[in-house]
Amino acid sequence: MTQHMDAAAEVATTTLSHINVPPAQTWNYLRINDIKMELPTPKVAGDVYAGLPQLFGKVEVGLGDEAVRWIVSSAGDSNFYEVKASEARTVVVDIDAATGDACDTGVLVRTGAKATIVTFAHGGAEGSSSASLLRVVAEADAEVSIVEIVAHDGGQHLDGVGIDAGERAQIEMRQYALGGSRVAVGLACNLAGNKSRFTLDSRYLAQGSEILDVNHVVRQRGRNTRADIVTTGILADSARKTMRETIDLIHGAKFAEGSEIETVLVTGDDVVNKTLPVILCDEEDVAGNHGASIGAISPEQLSFLGARGLSEEAAEQLFARALFDDAVIHAGNDDACSAVLARAATVLGAEVARDIAEVLGVEPKEA
Amino acid sequence: MAEATETTRKRSQVADVDRSLYDFKYSEEGFERYADGLSTDIVRAISEKKDEPQWMLDMRLKALAIYEEMEMPANWGPSIEMLDLNHISAYVSPKTKQASSWDEVPEDIKNTFERLGIPEAERESLAGVGAQYDSEIVYHNMRAEVADQGVIYTTIEDALHDPELEPIVHEYFGKLIPMRDHKFAALHYAVWSGGSFVYVPEGVTLPYPLQSYFRLNAQGAGQFEHTLIIVEPGADLHFIEGCSAPKYYEANLHAGAVELFVKDNARLRYSTIENWSKNMFNLNTKRATVGADAKMEWVSGSFGSHVSYLYPTTIMQGARSTCEFTGITFAGATQDLDTGCKVILNGPDTTASVDTKSISKDGGINTFRSSIVVGRKADRARATVSCASLMLDDFSRSDTIPAMDVRNGSASVGHEATIGRISDDTILYLMSRGCSEAEARTMVVNGFADPVSKELPMEYAIEMNNLIKLEMEGAIG
What we know:
The complex is a heterodimer. Chain A is an alpha/beta fold. Chain A is 18% helix and 46% strand. In chain A, the strands form three sheets. Chain A has an eight-stranded parallel sheet. In chain A, strand 1 (2-6) and strand 2 (11-19) form a beta hairpin. Chain B is 23% helix and 34% strand. Chain B contains eleven helices and 25 strands. In chain B, strand 3 and strand 4 form a beta hairpin. Classes of the chains: A alpha/beta, B alpha/beta. Strand 19 of chain A pairs antiparallel with strand 25 (412-421) of chain B, so a sheet runs across the interface.
């Protein structure tokens, strides 16, 4: 971490040089091993804020330690939630970039409890910076559903998630990266308990000159653990995206299975799409597989759609709309839903956004 | 140093293998051996001994300075801590001149290559052979009918002394692999010795492969051969590279370089069976550039070495060029093999296909590392990467680290990888039909490797199966 002063704006900034570093790196000249971001220096010297219980300090976060320290320093008081054994609770984290928000959230989900966690970041504009850090400890038999939405119109955003899963804990996660000038999303899930399970459905749209940087890490330590990661996204215009996905089958994780699939639809001529799908295997009785498919809509598919009156542009917009439809359906919270629709209005137009709301029976809140 | 026992055994059949096929050694007595370590004096001495043109000496000295300045990457790759260049001799040469008849080769060196089956292969199925022993080529020959077509197959050193060939070497040498490519590429250019120069004229198709075999007999030594192949438009060549060494407890180093120029409409198949001993640090660099409508085929079998960094690279500059990479890596006890490939698709309508297998056992570490880079001008480029890894026990390791960088909207890139074990059902099925467990496992592994072995000429496929059988010995119980 290096700090310096922006003379023009007289804002002290901090450079985080190694965000989203995957467990196994590769050739440095590919510039795929990390992302660098310049962010406002936290103004916390001499201040004392409420931190999370020490338990959360051990939870690995996909963004990496450097970014975690920055978010914790920027966030002020942390927010700790305990979902007691056999109870059910919803936790909503609203990150409004318009106010330079940074949130540090810890959720302890006790044995057999059910938690629904929604984090959504919105309101970003050029020059803004925001961040969210969510750490979850799921005890045995806990069921956790997480929805993570980043729906900025501009600005920088860091979104980190770390999850520790106990025996038979089930973690279901949906991740939507819908916009932001420079967004880093880093997720790590530690399947420590036997028979714990993690499923991730990750969707993204990057357009214009947006930069999206993603790091997904799943450590499979327990026996009979399962990890399924499905990522689909659209890259338009001259957007740049880096996707790192790691399944780490650690010694002792007998009968573990890990799978990762990424499908990228490229609709822009100047996009840069980087993908690093990694499997690390230190155990014999396991199965790991990954697949990636990157390309445009094929001429055959376009011809098929054309015969039904759909131009290439209309077809591509349909794909983008489907992504927003899905985000609205799974947002799980009215405010989060409104944030998605606001972003849809920017990307697809106000009319389409209204149509999505109408078709899905959602009433967006006034901005 | 133990003398090799006389034996008539050669690599030929699966039933007829033991480690003595590769793991025998002869005395270095009477050899010229430069002091261990690296210095300007050593680099100058190598150049002087070869009576090189000034530009080559300048290149060597510049490379040495770069080597001393560069660092190995700290964030990826196997450890090479045990490799101490202060205990490696950069140049060891037998006291013999290069021969064009095996009868002229000193007896112990001839025995070495006889046991490796090289003269026999030359008689039966090769268009030409080069054999390097430590730092120098000791034998070089090519069939007359191939030479009559204008094919040139000689050493880099001889080419440098030929007024007609020297400008060609000057034009191509070091152009594909820059000396700043990595630390050991710089080292290579500082102390290179031996290797082959191949020139296939326009439209010429060689009916049989050419083969270069590299044997490192000396302990605590490095081998730094340079292979330069130019396949002119419409020409066709299959080049085979073999390498082996006896095992010592002292580290040996292989840092060769292979530069391949495949011009428009040409085809080059480059096959390698690498069986270095398990004290070898193999930091070899191979690179090809491919012209329009040309085809580059790599077939690679990596079985030896203590540590390997090996990623043959294909730069597909020409439109409609194609690249196929078929590889297998077998990592056993004490081995940490980081292998794979790089493909750069720059031309429109280029096609690349990568198919690799890896097997890990007895604590061996296998890392498949690749990169597919699709450039902005590679309209409609297509690339597929498939890698499958087999784990034969629970204390070995297998990692796959494939990177993709796509910068063209009309390109299509696919990737798939699987890691798993041999199912108990398969072993049980084979055992119920009379196989022992060891035989059953070896059969499955051979079947797993079949897509690679079928790409090799018969006798090399047999050698590869031999190596698999050798590696599988003692896998059970």
